[in-house]
Amino acid sequence: MNNMLKSVICVMIAFISYASVAQNDNYKLETKYMECMCDLFNDNGAEFKALLKKAEQSLINAEVLSDTSGKSYIALYKNIRTSIDGRVANFGVSDYVIKALGGTENIKKYATCMNSILTDSNFEGSKISQIIALSTSENNSKITELTAKMLKIFEAKDFKHDFYKYLTFSLIDKHNASNRK
Known about the structure:
Elements: H1 2-25, H2 28-39, H3 46-61, H4 70-78, H5 81-84, H6 93-100, H7 104-118, H8 127-136, H9 143-151, H10 162-175
């Protein structure tokens, strides 16, 4: 009886662990967010995605990002100052999105889509909810403090998803010293 109870407990732990890993790897909310973004553009986000690729390549060319791996992105966050010291030009990612949000129709579309993310049953405790909480917190006046907190949320595998790359390029655009030249 005791061995049977141990077996049942082991199976339950394995199932819960598997379910947790599967839930964390599905990127459902991040995918939904990127769909929201792409829906804002007449070309269904083709130019937006090309802009993300171009930003990534700019970081590689400037030797700020060693390659496209998640490990490289984690290293970038650990040494964020080299990304914002002005050695790379503004990517224009944020400006491109803001321009798309210029019309009332797109603002409504974006708000509806974001509401669907915020009310999703998977939102509470998700990485995207943690990132939103960080971005709306007033306790992140220094970029290094913000990225240190972000590193507690991120894993290298996250950067296979465009959402995390978009987040990175937007952050660099916002804090880049080249904006002040």
